[in-house]
Amino acid sequence: MKRLFVNRALYSRWANARLYAAMAALSPETLAAPSAVNFGSILAIANHLVLVDRLWLNRFTGQGAPVTTVDAAPYTDLAALGAAREVEERRALAFCRALDPARCGGTLDYVTTDGTPTTLPLALCLDHFFNHQTLHRGQISGLLGAYGIKAADIDLLGFERETAAFAGLSG
Questions:
Q1: What is the rounded CA–CA span in Å between residue 60 and residue 62?
Q2: How far apart are CA 108 and CA 105, in angstroms?
Q3: pLDDT per residue over 139-155, tens digit each?
Q4: pLDDT tens across 16-45, in order?
Q5: Chain center to CA of 112
């Protein structure tokens, strides 16, 4: 399980770099243009991803400033958003690399954003963490296409073909 989660952290970093490169081809106005998608714009979806990642990483590690909402857009320009994205990617990779494999079989106790105490399997929470990223990266990729930008392939198997990351991981 640990190897799988390290791979997912590496994949997410790779996919985000490709997606942010494509997003850079759009004007700030287009990035923030209203759309009938979750969170309302490309920029808002990308902000949501950073905030949710921060929230989950805080839950996983017990460290970090509280995240009070995942619906805000505190980063209004792509450079600041990209820097925040990279911080969370480093945190995710460090957490996964340091993860005790025995902990993968345990649970995670946390409080939801609406204040509900919750206990779920840690492996399920980590799987959700990475799956959630994939969902919203797909939305962003689709929106980029609507603006005439063809993002580079961000498929998991494309990552593996390009990097052989999974084959090269140990432990």
A1: 6
A2: 10
A3: 999 999 999 999 888 98
A4: 999 999 999 999 999 999 998 889 999 999
A5: 18
Q: Are the beta carbons of 45 and 39 closer than 8 angstroms?
A: yes
For the entire predicted model, the pTM comes to 0.93
- What does the DSSP 8-state code read for residue 117? E
CA dihedral 35, 58, 13, 29 (to 10 degrees): 30
* HSE-up of residue 159 (Cα within 13 Å, Cβ side): 19
Q: Which two tokens stand for residue 126?
A: 């980590």
How far is 23 from 141, CA to CA, in rounded Å? Answer: 9
Ranges of beta strands (E only) in the chain are 107-111, 117-121
Structure tokens at 161: 């073909």
Task: Give the integer Cα–Cα distance in Å for 16 and 153.
Answer: 11
Structure token digits, residue 44: 């808002």
Query: Measured between alpha carbons, how far apart are the two ends of the chain, in Å?
Result: 9
